[in-house]
Amino acid sequence: MEIEPEKEIVIILSEKKDVATIISSISEKLDIEEPGKGIIFVREVSKVYGLAK
Fold it and tell me: CA–CA separation, 50 vs 5, rounded Å?
């Protein structure tokens, strides 16, 4: 997926066990530690509606 800095918001909903792998992959690919490359934050979700099982 092509992401343009300052123009895109990407929300990923995943299982807790996959979070570290996802963050690591995004961080490495986007060089997220460099200024102006974006931010990553994690928020625990307790309920989600509208998703089929």
Answer: 29
* Domain range list for the chain: 1-53
Q: Can you read off the two tokens belonging to residue 15?
A: 């299982």
Tokens of 26: 């995004």
pTM for the model stands at: 0.72
Nearest to 41, CA basis, from 3, 10, 1? 10
Alpha helices in the chain (DSSP H): 19-30
- Which structure tokens are listed for 50? 């509208």
Q: What is the pLDDT of residues 15-33, one digit of tens each?
A: 999 999 999 999 998 888 9
